[in-house]
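In response to reviewer comment 3 from the previous cycle, which asked for concrete evidence that the modeling workflow produces usable outputs, we include below a single protein chain processed end to end. The sequence was submitted unchanged, and the resulting structure tokens are shown without manual editing.
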Amino acid sequence: MRLPQARLDQVLDRFREIEARMGAASDGAEIVRLSKEHAELKPVAEAVQTLERARAEQPELEEMAASGDAEMVELARGELETLKERLPELERQVALLLAPKDKDENASAILEVRAGTGGDEAALFAGDLFRMYQRYAQSRGWRVEIDSVSEGEMGGYKEIVASVTGDGVFGRLKFESGVHRVQRVPATEAQGRIHTSAATVAVLPEPEDVEIEIRDQDLRIDTYRSSGAGGQHVNKTDSAVRITHLPTGIVVTSSEKSQHQNRARAMKALKVKLYDMQREAIDSARSEARKSQVGSGDRSERIRTYNFPQGRVTDHRINLTLYNLPKIMEGEALDDVIGPLIAEDQAARLAALEDELG
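The workflow returned the following structure tokens.
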């Protein structure tokens, strides 16, 4: 993709303008706003500057390659060939930075995993999925904190909600939203028959500044006794908190030991869910073409099948089939699935930029 010089100049002009305004600003709120925009634009400006330097080298090398000095000609031609191989990748990097992107790409996230069809086996599979994400998060240096949990009778989880904190969490995990289907012989199956079960995953962005207005009169707050593992404390005190947002019907819970902590966590989760509703409303108003994109986040769609007898994982959105299911379930090879999904999303973003540039 050949990016127009006018677009590159626009980026650099804006970056320089922000730097100049930061040096002169005295208002605290303006400094914060400018600093945020500066941090967002800096990698773009640096990539543009690298591209411009490379572009400027080309005519100089071409002139040297056409000179009469044999030794200089050979050297210049070698450097010119290397530069021509490097330029498309530099252009692609800049194009990706300029392409439309999810503003919550770098946000932390709320991860929700729920058992779907399949009874006890679905709960066991939900547990397997959550452990997969836990291990994956650990490998990337992210922190996972469980906000609420409802355990299955035979193990696993009927539902588990956790906060995943770190840089770029939502940008990678957002592709996990949807219905995950499993085909395997359950531990409870005496005849050795393969069963099909499902679990749903929802990944909601948790931006740093969620400006959502919540009125006290719109809330119903209940306390109750926690269930499941946790010792005697959870069985004897009404420490768990359930908050219902009456206008939307959204219900959030938190079931740690401290009621005060549970209330704070539940309010945070409610803000995230209301923010996600706003995102979905905006997304649904966009082009119908977006529904076919990888990052559409439709949580009712079956996105992936895990076939244990064949050791196979298939992502139905991009027709990707892999035969390393054990490593994927351990979290160590989950990037083998997420990587191609990100690449597909990037291709869609680049196509959108090309349409914009005409």
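The longest strand covers residues 195-206. We consider this sufficient to address the reviewer's concern, and the full set will be provided in the supplementary archive.
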